[in-house]
Amino acid sequence: MTQQTHRLRPDEIKISGVRAVLAVWQRRPDAVIRVYVDAERARDLGAMLSGLAQRRRVYHRVEAEELARVAGTDHHEGVCAVVRERPRATLDNVLRAGRGVRGPLWVLALDGVDNPHNVGAIARGAAHFGVPYLLIEPGSPGLDSPAAIRVAEGAAEAVDVVEASLLGALEHLHAAGWAVFATSSHGATSIFDVKFPPRTVLVLGSEAHGVRGEIVQGADARLVVPGTSAVQSLNVAAASAAMLCEGFRQLGPRGGR
Fold first, then answer.
1. In terms of domains, do 63 and 107 share one?
2. How many helices (H) and strands (E) does the chain have?
3. Which residues contact 224 (CB under 8 A, 6 or more apart)?
4. What's this model's pTM, rounded to 2 decimal places?
5. Domain that holds residue 96
6. CA gap 79, 238 in Å, rounded
7. Percent of the chain at pLDDT above 90?
């Protein structure tokens, strides 16, 4: 039977994917408004569905065709949820964390990275290596699209998005003692030849244009992931993961949570 589509409020979004939906349920159960699930996935998500019923929240068992219509994609993994968006962090939150958190604390800054699959994969790597902040330009794609959230595999609940002018934000962070590194394939230092400080901002650029020249010029160093010349470069998400892995090897887990 066809269910009537839930009309979204301005603070609500739809998310799909088992890990993405479960991450919201585990961290912010009151933010889950409504769930659509197919019969097979309902068996796997029984604990969540029981919890929703106890909270008097609605869930619908639907056929695959209906679920794809509700989710807006066939890549839903058998579940779609309407949830309240996470509030975004601010640059002040980052600066306060930098002063108060013991141990390493990193920020990833995205300059022109607008593919939601790349954004989601970058966030997944950030969460895996304990990086709590993703800095983006106002109006740039963050972790607010269904595709980015699904690809992030739950990381959208573990990484705070900060929306601020990159040039200004990087200046503030640098003045507060953070090192700023920009990825580049020209005249760059291997990530294996640099000692990462505890307070680091890593700026990643789009695959088409890279990091803007003015940001590169103001950075403390340019970094590259070394490799063969078989391909021109790594995908931005893969490069991000490699750099975060090296930082993790040097410094251990990040703080901020």
1. no
2. 10, 11
3. 183, 184, 185, 188, 189, 190, 191
4. 0.91
5. 91-251
6. 28
7. 80
Q: Which helix (H) or strand (E) holds 175?
A: helix 166-175
Q: Are residues 113 and 184 in the same domain?
A: yes
Q: What does 13-71 look like in DSSP terms, one character per residue?
A: EEEESHHHHHHHHHH-GGGEEEEEE-HHHHHHTHHHHHHHHHTT-EEEE--HHHHHHHH
pLDDT digits (tens, 9 = 90+) for 59-91: 999 999 999 999 999 999 999 999 999 988 999
71 and 124 together in one domain: no
- Of the candidates 174, 223, 218, the one whose C-alpha atom is nearest the C-alpha of residue 194 is 223
Give the pLDDT band of residue 5 (cuts 50, 70, 90).
low
**Half-sphere exposure in the Cβ direction for 145 (13 Å, CA):** 17
Give the residue, 186 or 76, on which the prediction is more confident. 76
CA angle 244/176/206 to nearest 5° reads 40
99-119 in b/e burial notation, b at 16+ Cβ within 10 A? eebeebbbbbbbbbbebbebb
What is the average pLDDT across 140-162? 93
What strands, in cross-sheet order, belong to the sheet with 105-111? Answer: 160-163, 133-136, 105-111, 199-205, 179-183, 221-224, 189-190
φ/ψ of 37, rounded to 5, equals -145, 145
CATH number at residue 80: 3.30.1330.30
Q: Render 196-207 in DSSP notation, one character per residue.
A: --SEEEEEEEBT
At residue 255, the pLDDT reads 47
User: What distance in Å separates the CA atoms of residue 133 and residue 130, rounded to the nearest whole number?
Assistant: 9
